[in-house]
Inverse folding.
């Protein structure tokens, strides 16, 4: 089960795409969800970090990325009123 969960996160795939060799994806997802709900993954991570820090394996340097990613104008769900047909009629009147 753990190998299936790790594989899923490492590859960045959907649960349904986990290879059958790890078992049914529903079973892997359910097992992962239960362990996340009862705090098992948090305890495992804390214990691993404690041991790695004591062994001097972890470099606690922090990297901050201040990259700005702008969304395309059509990526928003807001409407933008451009005038539509009224604008075209006004332009036609001015041209005459």
């Amino acid at each position: 089960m753990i190998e299936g969960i790790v594989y899923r996160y490492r590859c960045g795939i959907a649960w349904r795409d986990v290879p059958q060799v790890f078992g049914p994806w529903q079973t892997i997802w359910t097992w992962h969800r239960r362990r996340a709900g009862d705090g098992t993954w948090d305890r495992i991570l804390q214990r691993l970090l404690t041991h790695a820090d004591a062994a001097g394996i972890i470099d606690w340097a922090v990297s901050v990325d201040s990259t700005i990613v702008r969304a395309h104008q059509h990526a928003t769900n807001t409407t933008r009123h451009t005038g539509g047909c009224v604008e075209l009629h006004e332009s036609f009147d001015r041209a005459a």
About this structure: The first helix runs from residue 2 to 11.
